[in-house]
Amino acid sequence: MAFSFFFRDLPTLDTAVQHMVAQTMGRSRIRVWVAGSAKGQEVYTLAMLLAEKMGYFSFQNLRIEATDIEAEFGEIIRRGIYPKAELERIPQPYFDRYFQPTEQEGCFQVIEPIRRRVTFTHHDLLSLNPIGDGFSLIVCKNVLLHFQPAERVEVFKMFHRSLATDSILANEHTQKLPAEVVPLFQQVASDAQVYRKVSLHA
Ligand SMILES: C[S@@+](CC[C@H](N)C(=O)[O-])C[C@H]1O[C@@H](n2cnc3c(N)ncnc32)[C@H](O)[C@@H]1O
């Protein structure tokens, strides 16, 4: 099910952004992966938070890669057009800054400088083939709860391999890490499921 909404679980996203931005300061190429992105509400929320936190120039170095098993969500994300009823939870300053009216009555579009930073790829997490590596942040929320426990463990291991050294993973606040992968991540805040990659040395 693709239930999602803008500014969902803001404290987790805020914590993740704060730690990622501190970690990537001064870098010229920053990759973020939002896995199980549904119709784009989460990935665009994250992009807006990052635009605020990083500032104009650093934000241009960012590439946010949204993925979902539902390929048709790609077109919805690329267009970034949503009915006003879906945008009610967005704080007014964000709505004013990052949305523009469209020719479709009652619909608004995410502005182009934000859309330009976001790409979409059709991807099945259970393939266990990551879309790349060197990610500074991976956000995967409200997806893994539908998987079998053993599958969850393998997906967390894939995320660990895909993250750059010391980079950040964000999970939904109701989900704890499976015991098998606890050694791979260090929680960065006691009140959020946000973790820093622990590098394992042979
Ligand atoms: C409940 S929505 C969560 C959306 C968003 N992450 C959030 O927290 O609001 C779950 C999403 O996971 C996607 N999904 C389910 N199984 C998946 C899989 N094996 N690989 C990738 N995405 C999957 C669904 O298509 C859906 O869009």
TrEMBL record:
<dbReference type="Pfam" id="PF01739">
    <property type="entry name" value="CheR"/>
</dbReference>
<keyword id="KW-0489">Methyltransferase</keyword>
<dbReference type="InterPro" id="IPR000780">
    <property type="entry name" value="CheR_MeTrfase"/>
</dbReference>
<dbReference type="InterPro" id="IPR029063">
    <property type="entry name" value="SAM-dependent_MTases_sf"/>
</dbReference>
<dbReference type="InterPro" id="IPR022642">
    <property type="entry name" value="CheR_C"/>
</dbReference>
<dbReference type="InterPro" id="IPR050903">
    <property type="entry name" value="Bact_Chemotaxis_MeTrfase"/>
</dbReference>
<feature type="domain" description="CheR-type methyltransferase">
    <location>
        <begin position="1"/>
        <end position="198"/>
    </location>
</feature>
<dbReference type="GO" id="GO:0008757">
    <property type="term" value="F:S-adenosylmethionine-dependent methyltransferase activity"/>
</dbReference>
<keyword id="KW-0808">Transferase</keyword>
<protein>
    <submittedName>
        <fullName>Chemotaxis protein methyltransferase CheR</fullName>
    </submittedName>
</protein>
<dbReference type="GO" id="GO:0032259">
    <property type="term" value="P:methylation"/>
</dbReference>
